[in-house]
Amino acid sequence: MNKALLFIGAGMLAAGQLSAQCPTGQTEVTVSIVTDMYGSETTWEVTGVGGSPVFASGGPYTNAGSAGEYDQPSVTFCVADGTPVVLTVDDEYGDGMCCAYGEGSITISAAGYDLLSLGEFGGSASGSATIGGLDLAVQSVNLYPYIGQGNQTISGTLRNAGTVPVTSFTLNYTIDGGTAVSEVVTATVNPGSTYDYSHGTPWNAAVGSHNVLVSVSAPNGNGTDLNDANNSVTQPVGVATQVVPRKTLVEEFTSSTCAPCANFNETFDPTLESLNTNTPGSVVAAVKYQMNWPSPGNDPSYNPDGNSRKNYYGVNGIPAPFLDGRNMLYGTANELNESAEIPAVVNLDIQATRVGTNVTVNVGVTPYTDITGTHKLHIAVVEDYYDYVASTTSQDEFHFAMRKMLPNASGTSVTNLTSGVTQNFTQSYTFTEGGPAQGNYNLWGTIEGITVVAFLQNQSTKAVLQAGTADAVVGLDELADPLGLAIYPNPSNGMVFLRSEKNLGALTVDVFNALGERVVTRTLNGNGTRSIDLGGLTNGMYYMNVTANGVTTAKKILLDK
User: Fold this and answer.
1) Is 431 helix (H, G, I), strand (E, B) or coil?
2) What's residue 340's pLDDT?
3) Left, alpha or beta for 541 (phi > 0: left; psi -120 to 50: alpha)?
4) 526 band by pLDDT with thresholds 50, 70 and 90
5) ∠ at Cα 393 (97, 258), nearest 5°?
6) What DSSP character marks residue 228?
7) Which of 3.40.50.12780, 1.10.540.10, 2.40.50.140, 2.60.40.3080 would CATH assign to domain 482-559?
């Protein structure tokens, strides 16, 4: 059945009917539905607490041809005054009704007020409201899962889930079931509106694991809250000896054969670049897993490690971006920066060295509080950039493609995460340069163009505790380079830049093809970053001898125009 409607108190009503003509002691409720372009993904129902009875339900709806907001027929029904109702919305794809596809929502209103609205969520969301009476609900507690010791402000958000304005209430918090700390708050919170609370008495947090319970009572002084089920929220909190800055992790499942992926990456990749992603000073690390679907599924960068990560998250549609192990909603710089503001209680010390095409990675994991649960350390070697003219989409530039997980996509188990105790993990892999094909772990370009991304992840919740990056070009052979020269991008579409922190003066550049034939000779004057245009050469691997002050160093460059 496409839409199923069940009503109590007033008989059956048609979807879109303006008035339910409720009898005395009952209140009319309206459900307003706005879908994004993928209406077929959306279903909803309004029930009593515990899932019964079902007052109304709807969806799936018809898909639209373009992104936008699409009004669906509203639904009205009657319930007895004082009845708590629960709205549950499901999205089959798992990205809610928002963002690039349209800002959809499902809203419950009664007595002239919008009481509840859902739209921005992952796979599902729910909320409650009480019809015809007082109902003050605690929505959130603004304490991160891990915090530092010392005074902490207890704050968060309340919502008036009833149909009667609230002008005062008592705000309480308890720590580990202890004595309540209470204060009377005078403020007007209209039905459907929220109120950001901040308790005047701070909590002096001691190191260890705690449960913080925030509750409200006595709405309007002596009023009776009709729904006790939403009067409190308990937040488990770990208090660490110290907190450290977080590097937030982006994981994106994508493909060169996926048109929506190309559209998403058109704006997302510049966002990642603007945040200097995968550099030491950035707050963002990124790994992209290229899939072998949709049809024709011939993305040459697909490999089995990416498929294993896809199965871990249960991804069944792309693009699918994740942020620290949870669904990413917007893909904006603000969303990434806000995630990076969450304090971390684990430090990752990552060092990557290379000899030839062999990369060795050491990661030191240091927690600042005892952490329970099952965790794994994942190490991804990513290629920073490559050019590839996709066969079925408009995308021709690719960033942060995963080439190999070390030792594999399963990662390495990390046990006994004890405060202040460092554990070290070492992995190594020898790469093949020069063009991937499905199923292998080859680099598209050269070893100089890779970065190592490491992250610690809870296997049950999928939450990423911390991420970090290391520049893999800082290795033994690079340290032996007397000129300290870096060349980029590699692979290149023709224009190559040469950079050194040293004052080298004039550079003589000789370029040789795979047969050892000199094909270009240039003298580059000046200091700082210099450039050379190799766009006249055919695609393939070339070797550059760069000479300055009588000293020569050799570099490889892959042309892929």
Assistant:
1) coil
2) 96
3) beta
4) confident
5) 45
6) G
7) 2.60.40.3080
